[in-house]
Design a protein that fits this description.
By secondary structure, the chain is an alpha/beta fold. It has one domain: TIM Barrel. The chain contains 11 helices and 13 strands. Strands 2-3-4-5-6-7-8-9 form an 8-stranded parallel beta sheet. It has a 3-stranded antiparallel beta sheet with strand order 1-10-13, covered by helices on one side. The chain starts with a strand and ends with a strand. Bound molecules: N-carbamoyl-L-aspartate (NCD) and zinc ion (ZN) (2 copies). N-carbamoyl-L-aspartate binds next to loops. Its EC number is 3.5.2.3.
Length: 345
């Protein structure tokens, strides 16, 4: 039985850090284990232009506690008014590593997102030309489409047509939640990858709804049936380079989660590595953990892998806080509902 595991330091390819007091509180939770993270731009107002990404990056670095090493990989929030030249300049300077597409209304702080995909065509063409990846929140927003079908319908109606009409566009399907997402990625040899969260490896829709509503299991895209969770787990543990960890750790205060209309988002930054290692161990796939958390992401983004390592050890159930304090109120840490045995030394 393996009880220690040394791997290259991991990265998080999908992270919400927010701003101000919340940023201050959640950044160390990520920086403790992760070397780099793709920083989601869905602030209010969103991070749209290169100069806004530069000042957000400065605020993140200013919030980093002394002695911690962490590199924020910045993104821009795609709007119908985004200027292709500004995007190209922010990419050429090394500031941004991706552009994020939110269909308007799909998720938290997506009101400034895209309604008419034809309007962003010039930006997408420029991105294809310069090799800048597009990260996609892949859900349609049509009122008549069932929330559990929104990812699958997005692939057919929006994503596949965009990819066919924009050859060379490199796409990351963010936080996939369905076997449809897994199958679509696998059916495409080039220019397509997907992030998978820790929580979607663990929960299905029953966890949210059976025995009472669990607001801390509610996120978007919402967790689906068990067969979909199993497809995600198989993809993550397969070693296939097209799948990599993006936690989508998305802090909301308990006050904003535990209410009649609670916010979407699970906060996993504190215990991500314990969650993921536990699930890989259960699948007898610890040999593929490094690929999922440390190798496949840099491979897709064409960045060097981290030189430093971390060591995980297996032992008594890991102690982690049930909540973290933030200047805005407590934020509940994702509780898988079972003990975790792997901790980062
Ligand atoms: N995943 C979520 O449920 N919420 C994210 C937004 C997102 O990634 O869709 C957030 O910013 O809170
Ligand atoms: Zn999203
Ligand atoms: Zn997200």
């Amino acid at each position: 039985m393996t009880d220690t595991l040394t791997i290259r330091r991991p990265d998080d390819w999908h992270l919400h850090l927010r701003d101000g007091a919340m940023l201050q509180a959640v950044l160390p939770e990520t920086a403790r284990h992760f070397a780099r993270a793709i920083i989601m731009p869905n602030l209010v107002p969103p991070v749209v232009r290169g100069d806004e990404a530069a000042t957000y990056r400065d605020r993140i670095l200013a919030a980093l506690p002394d002695g911690m090493v962490f590199e924020p990989l910045m993104t821009l929030y795609l709007t119908e008014d985004t200027d292709a030249q500004d995007v190209a300049a922010a990419h050429a300077s090394g500031l941004i590593k991706a552009v994020k597409l939110y269909p308007a209304g799909a998720t938290t702080n997506s009101a400034s997102g895209v309604r008419d995909f034809d309007k962003v065509r010039p930006v997408l063409e420029k991105m294809a030309e310069i090799g800048l990846p597009m990260c996609v929140h892949g859900e349609v927003t049509d009122a008549e489409i069932d929330i559990f079908d929104r990812e699958a319908v997005f692939i057919d109606r929006v994503l596949d047509p965009i990819r066919k009409s924009t050859p060379g566009l490199r796409v990351v399907m963010e936080h996939i939640t369905t076997s449809n997402g897994v199958d679509y990625v696998k059916a495409n040899e080039t220019d397509l990858g997907a992030t998978i969260t820790a929580h979607h490896l663990i929960i299905n829709r029953n966890h949210i709804l059976v025995g009472g509503i669990k607001p801390h299991y509610y996120c978007l895209p919402v967790a689906k049936r068990e067969e979909h969770r199993l497809a995600l787990l198989a993809a993550a543990t397969s070693g296939d380079p097209r799948f990599f960890l993006g936690t989508d750790s998305a802090p909301h205060t308990d006050a904003n989660k535990e209410m009649a209309c609670g916010c979407a988002g699970c906060f996993t930054a504190t215990n991500t590595m314990s969650l993921v290692a536990e699930m890989f161990d259960r699948e007898d796939a610890l040999g593929k953990l490094e690929a999922f958390v440390s190798l496949n992401g840099p491979g897709f983004y064409r960045l060097p892998v981290n030189e430093e390592t971390i060591t995980l050890t297996k032992g008594e159930p890991v102690a982690y806080p049930s909540k973290i304090d933030t200047g805005e109120g407590p934020v509940t840490v994702f509780d898988p509902g079972f003990p975790l045995h792997w901790s980062v030394a």
